[in-house]
Amino acid sequence: MKRIIACVKPVPDPKHWDRVSLDPETMTLRREGIPNVVNPLDRQAVEAALQIKEALGGEVVLLSMAPPFAASTIREMLAMGADRAVLLSDHLFAGSDTLATSRILAAGVKQIGAFDLILCGNMTLDGSTAQVPSQLAELLDIPNLMHITKIEWPDPNLCRLTQRIENGQIVWEASPPLLISVVKEINKPRYISFLGIIEAEKKELAVWSNEVLKIEPKLLGLAGSPTKMAGLTIRRSRRAKEILTGEAEDLARALAQRLVRKGFL
Amino acid sequence: MTTKKDDRGGLWVLAEQHQGVLAEVGLELLGKARELADQGGFQVTAVLLGDRVKGLADELIAAGADQVLAAEDPALEPYHLLPYTQVITDLIKEHQPEILLIGATALGVELAPRAAARLGAGLSAHCIDLQLDDQGRLLQVVPGWGGGVLATITCPDHRPQMATVMPGVMKSRGDPQRQGQVIEAAVDLPQDQPGPRVIEVSRREPQGLPLEKAEIVVAGGWGVGSAEKWSLVEELAELLDGAVGATRPPLDEGWAGEDQMIGQSGKTVRPKLYIGLGISGMMHHVVGMDQSEFVVAVNQDPQAAIFEVCDLGLVADLTELLPILITEIKKLKGSD
Description:
The complex is a heterodimer. Chain A has helices at about 40-55, 70-80, 100-110, 130-140, 195-200, 210-215, 250-260, and strands at about 5, 10, 20-25, 30, 35-40, 60-65, 85-90, 115-120, 145-155, 160-165, 170-175, 180, 205-210, 230-235, 240-245. Chain A is an alpha/beta fold. Chain A has a single domain (about 5-220), classed as 3-Layer(aba) Sandwich (Rossmann fold). In chain A, the strands form 3 sheets. A 9-stranded mixed beta sheet of chain A has the order 11-10-9-12-8-1-6-7-13. In chain A, strands 2-5 form a two-stranded antiparallel ribbon. In chain A, β6 (about 60-65), α2 and β7 form a beta-alpha-beta unit. In chain A, α2 crosses α5 (about 195-200) and α3 (about 100-110) packs across α4 (about 130-140). The model of chain A has no long low-confidence stretch (mean pLDDT about 95). Chain B folds into 2 domains: about 10-185, HUPs (Rossmann fold, 3-Layer(aba) Sandwich); about 210-335, Rossmann fold (3-Layer(aba) Sandwich), CATH 3.40.50.1220. In chain B, β9 (about 140-145) and β10 form a beta hairpin. In chain B, about 55% of the residues are buried. Chain B has a 7-stranded parallel beta sheet with strand order 7-11-6-1-4-5-12, sandwiched between helices. Chain B has helices at about 25-40, 55-60, 80-95, 105-120, 225-240, 250, 285, 320-335, and strands spanning about 10-15, 15-20, 20, 45-50, 65-70, 100-105, 125, 130, 140-145, 150-155, 160-165, 180-185, 195-205, 215-220, 245, 275, 295-300, 310-315. Classes of the chains: A alpha/beta, B alpha/beta. Chains A and B meet through α3, α4, β9, β10 and β11 of A and α3, α4, β7, β9 and β10 of B. β15 of chain A pairs parallel with β18 (about 310-315) of chain B, so a sheet runs across the interface.
C-alpha cells in the first residue's frame, strides 16, 4: 500500500443545532456561534485508514473541502495519526452541491497523486445526502462500495469487504484503486493522545485554493451545481401537544383510556 | 405504420428487484409518480434491471407504470454498481426522461449519485415530499440539519431531475385492471465486468411484522434505561399488536436490531398510532415518524423535544409508568 486518502469534513456540532435559525431576508441559515466538530463517521474512516496503514504500510493523507477555519478540526484528525492533510479552500467553492463538491475533491485527489484507497464516512451529519462517496468515485473513474462494516485483506492487493444491506449483508472482493465508505460499526476510533496532539502541530497541512486545482469557475459553487435551493423553512409541528403531568398511576390510566377512545384497544 | 409516440420527457422510476423480488419502495414511488404524472401529463416508466425479470412487469403496471422498460442481462443479477450505472445511464441518454425517482435503499443511495455524476444531473437525497411547480418542474422537499430544516430543491437546467426517497415515505397503490406495455431494452455489457465481485449474499427473512407496515409502533429510546426494561417496551407493543421501533442508542446498547431503527438513517414509519418511550426527540428520529397519525410521547424530562412534536405527552418515569400501563391494558383487553 502506498497511499490512502481519508476524506474528512467539519460539521456544525449537532448538540447545538437547535440554535440554527433562518434569516428571512436572505433565506439562508444563521449558524453563527455554532462550533464545528469532525463529522462523526469520518473518525471511523480515518481509523480504518490507520488500521490499513498499520497492517500494509503507506501514508494516510487527509483531504477536506472547507473554509479556512476548518484547519483546527483537521489538525485533530492529524493528531489521531494521519501523516499529512490537504485542505481545499476557496471562496469559489462556497455553495457547491454534492456534484460540484465531488469535482473539487476529485481535483484535490488528482493533485495529491497516485493512491490505492479512498476512505469516507458513509454520510455527513449536516447534509446527510450520502452522495459524495459515489460521485467522487465516478469522477475518478474508480469502483466504490458503501455501507461497509468490515475490511479484511486476504492478500495485500485484494480486500474483502462486508456491506450492510436491508435485512442482511453482501461480502465483496475488490482490488485497489477503490473508494470505500464506512458505517459506524466498522470500528471504534482511537483516542487522541497528548503526544499525538504535539506531533500533529508539526505535520504538514497544505491549503490549496483553485489556483492550485485550476477548475473552470463555471463548474464550481452555485454556478457549477445542478441542484438549486428554491426555499428553506424551519420545521414546525402542528400537533396538539397536550402535555399531562401527575402520578404515574393516573397518567397510565389516562393513556389507556385515550387508547380505548381512539379505537386502538 | 403509426408513428411511435416520442417517449422523451417521461417520468421514470427505478423498479429495484433482487432475485425476482421487487423492493416495496419502487412500488411506493410508482404510486407517487402516477399522481405527479396525472397532474403534469407525463408518461410513467418503470425501469427494471436484472436477469429474466420481465415477469415482474404486471406488478409494476398495476402499481402505476404506463410502460416497463426491462433491461435483462446475466451481468445485472446480482446487483453490481458499475454495470447498473452503465445500463441506466445509457437508457437515460437514449430516452431522455424528465424525472428519475430511485428508492433510498442500500442499492439506491449507491447507484443514484454515481449515475447523476456520470450524467451531470442534479440529485436530491431522501426527499420527504415531491411536487410539480406550475411549469411541471419537480420540487424536491428534503430535510436538513437532522430534519430541523426543510429545503425545497429544484434542478432547473439539467435532466433528468433525480431524487431518492426513503422506503415508507410514499404510499403504493395497486390497480390490477391497469394496462401497460413492456419494452425490452438492448443491453450491451462486456462479459468480464470490472470492479468488485460478489462473494456471498445473505438476506434474513425479516422477523414479525415489518415496522413500515405496522399500524401501531411502540418506539423506545435511551431513556428506557436497560435491556430488562426494554422487554416492557416489547410487551407493550405485543399487547397493542404493534411493532417495536428504536432510536440509535438502543441499537448501540444491543437492546434493538438495526432494522428497528426509525429516523433519517433508518426507517420511515407512518402508523395510525406511534408511542415514543424515553425518546428525547432529536430531529434525526422525528423525521422518520412525523407522518404518524397520532403521536404519544412519554419522557421524564418536561423539556424533552419530543413534547414539541406529539399529540399527547406524558411527563413520567417509565420505570413506574410502563408496568401500570401494561396492567391497565391487560385489564381493558380482558373485559372486551
